[in-house]
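Duplicate of #3305? Posting structure anyway:
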């Protein structure tokens, strides 16, 4: 057997499968951004067909034989090499994928496509009943998917592993418990001084075309280029790509509120920078994406919050913002900085402040587990949602659009995804500590509009590796520890909001 030739055969087959996955990404992007609603039924079949073909190709016995033939070759290569990483990651994916029938994989893709459009219409009409049948199909399919794997202590672990490899529900509960113990008292202390911060400057008349121009100007400072990126409006912001040279960001605008587009754009740009920074040697392979959703979210949350809601960045950006919106002319830096960091429990997760954001995710994590176990009937989901929003955040939910229907994730079949948002927030602080230690003058750079040094540090230490290593291995490389550590995040939140709200 010619081992190098066998390896090339594997790479060729994987490249074809990767191409099909990117076709699905493009179809999904188009559905969310430009497709007329009438295209939904046919689009669902198209995506199901592509998904089924990709699954059939990947789970074919020939892939298994290639992996067996290359076992010794993998062991002969350095662990960190592209070749060993490719074989190792492919074997892991193959072992999981071959447990799932092709028919089930295709049906999951088809239902997700139909459910996405159903969700958009239901959200627009605040009509949970219209979406419920699609959510029921999604939960039923997820149960069948879980059944494909050997029994575990918690069925939710199977779904969580799809997004955060190696993470267990028990570990998520521990992390969430530790975080809640630290931030709930801080939220209470801030609430007693709620009137100390005024965010009135963020509300008013902000024409959407000018918002877009401002957002693009910020993104270009972060690393967006016209030749390889694009930026569009959508119902629920997201980032996607079809290659390293085709990064697609979306955001949403409110003509009377400036914050959502600004920070939604920064958030999605963080995702885009991760994908754009992967080594070109990994293009058209299973390694050409982020190592996990938690690590991915660390990048979006970093650019949105640690950079985007920092004082130093706005020392540079605020004068430009005032040119676009003259009504901000008399708003000084401190007023604006405090406004964009106002702690105010609200209805919408993606527009939540840093401090209360985690409670939105805890709520969804709990509801997902209950839906999967059957202890929560879908008929009761809106009521359960509303009750926990009141209990956790003290807010009353006026309608389903701003309640149980606000997120797109369940329509896409992304059950098990939500915990990664908090994991990402926590990990962002761990990585940030290392970045600041390596570049002590980072804030001075931001004040001068220089954000590319941070991007390049992240590219060198994290982004370029793509999915060569597990999430824990990747975290070890960047931070020196493979554990998700709540401490740095709590330290960051405590220092920031103690200062803003004048807490003792």
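Output from current build:
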């Amino acid at each position: 057997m010619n081992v190098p030739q066998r390896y090339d055969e594997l790479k060729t087959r994987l490249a074809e499968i990767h191409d099909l996955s990117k076709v699905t990404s493009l179809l999904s992007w188009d559905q969310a951004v430009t497709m007329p609603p009438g295209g939904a039924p046919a689009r669902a079949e198209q995506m199901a067909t592509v998904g089924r073909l990709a699954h059939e190709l990947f789970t074919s016995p020939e892939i298994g034989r290639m992996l067996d033939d290359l076992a010794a070759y993998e062991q002969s290569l350095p662990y960190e090499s592209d070749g060993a990483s490719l074989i190792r990651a492919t074997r892991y994916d193959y072992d999981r994928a071959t447990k799932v029938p092709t028919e089930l994989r295709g049906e999951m893709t088809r239902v997700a496509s139909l459910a996405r459009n159903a969700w958009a219409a239901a959200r627009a009409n605040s009509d949970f009943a219209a979406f419920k049948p699609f959510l029921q199909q999604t939960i039923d399919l997820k149960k069948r998917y879980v059944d494909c794997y050997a029994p575990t202590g918690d069925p939710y672990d199977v779904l969580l592993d799809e997004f955060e490899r190696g993470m267990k529900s028990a570990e998520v509960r521990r992390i969430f418990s530790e975080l809640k113990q630290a931030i709930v008292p801080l939220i209470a202390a801030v609430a007693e001084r709620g009137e100390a911060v005024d965010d009135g400057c963020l509300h008013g008349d902000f024409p959407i075309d000018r918002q877009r121009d401002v957002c693009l100007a910020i993104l270009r400072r972060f690393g967006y280029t016209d030749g390889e990126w694009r930026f569009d409006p959508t119902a629920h912001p997201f980032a996607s790509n079809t290659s390293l040279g085709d990064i697609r960001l979306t955001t949403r605008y409110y003509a009377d509120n400036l914050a959502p587009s600004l920070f939604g754009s920064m958030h999605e740009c963080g995702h885009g920078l991760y994908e754009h920074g992967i080594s070109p040697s990994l293009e058209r392979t299973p390694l050409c994406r982020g190592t996990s959703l938690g690590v991915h979210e660390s990048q979006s949350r970093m650019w949105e919050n640690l950079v985007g809601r920092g004082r130093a960045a706005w020392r540079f950006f605020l004068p430009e913002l005032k040119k676009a919106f003259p009504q901000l002319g008399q708003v000084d830096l401190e007023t604006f900085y405090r406004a964009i960091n106002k702690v105010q429990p609200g209805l919408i997760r993606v527009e939540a402040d840093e401090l209360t954001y985690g409670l939105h995710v805890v709520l969804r994590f709990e509801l997902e587990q209950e839906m999967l176990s059957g202890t929560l009937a879908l008929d009761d989901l809106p009521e359960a949602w509303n009750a926990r929003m009141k209990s956790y955040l003290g807010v009353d939910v006026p309608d389903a659009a701003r309640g149980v229907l606000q997120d797109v994730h369940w329509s896409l079949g992304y059950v098990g995804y939500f915990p990664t948002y908090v994991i990402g927030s926590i990990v962002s602080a761990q990585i940030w500590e290392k970045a600041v230690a390596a570049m002590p003058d980072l804030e001075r750079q931001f004040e001068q509009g220089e954000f590319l040094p941070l991007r390049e540090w992240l590219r060198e230490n994290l982004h370029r590796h793509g999915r060569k290593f597990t999430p824990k291995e990747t975290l070890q490389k960047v931070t020196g520890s493979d554990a998700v550590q709540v401490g740095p995040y709590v330290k960051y939140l405590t220092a920031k909001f103690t200062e803003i709200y004048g807490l003792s």
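Confirmed duplicate; merging threads. Residues 3-33 form the longest helix (31 residues). Strands lie at 229-233, 239-243, 246-251.
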